[in-house]
Amino acid sequence: MAKQIKKLKTPNLQQPLTAELLGEVIKARRTQSDLRLEDAAALCGVAKETFMKIEHGQSSCQLASVLQICSGLGINLYIKPWMDNGEDENDWR
User: Fold this and answer.
1) Where is the HTH cro/C1-type domain (predicted)?
2) What homologous superfamily does CATH list for 19-73?
3) Hey, CA dihedral for 67, 78, 34, 43, is it positive or negative?
4) How many Å separate Cα 37 from the centre of its chain?
């Protein structure tokens, strides 16, 4: 019998994005989708080792691989628009 995948809760998404947070998000999405690491990596077209490194928040991974995994798992990343008039030049949130 196959090992059951423990579903992880979605982490708090109301905080600044870090490699560690994105790794937690990816792992939560994978486990909530009942995907083994090997299957998720194959689905996203990346090596299992690459997928594992990203889930563990290693910042040395290539951005293209991170974006490929996010796309494959249906995780949407957005850039918050900023004001172009200089009023918020010190507001880097």
Assistant:
1) 25-80
2) lambda repressor-like DNA-binding domains (1.10.260.40)
3) negative
4) 14
Mean pLDDT across the stretch 5-9? 95
Phi, psi for 11 (deg, rounded to 5): -70, 165
Of 93, 77, 63, the closest CA to residue 29 belongs to 77
Tokens of 28: 């939560």
Nearest to 54 by CA among 66, 37, 43, 71: 66
Beta-carbon neighbour count of residue 42 at 10 Å? 15
DSSP notation for the chain? -PPPPPPPPPPP-SS---HHHHHHHHHHHHHHTT--HHHHHHHHTS-HHHHHHHHTT-TTS-HHHHHHHHHHHT----PPP--SSSTTTT---
> What's the full length of the chain, in residues?
93
pTM of the model: 0.85
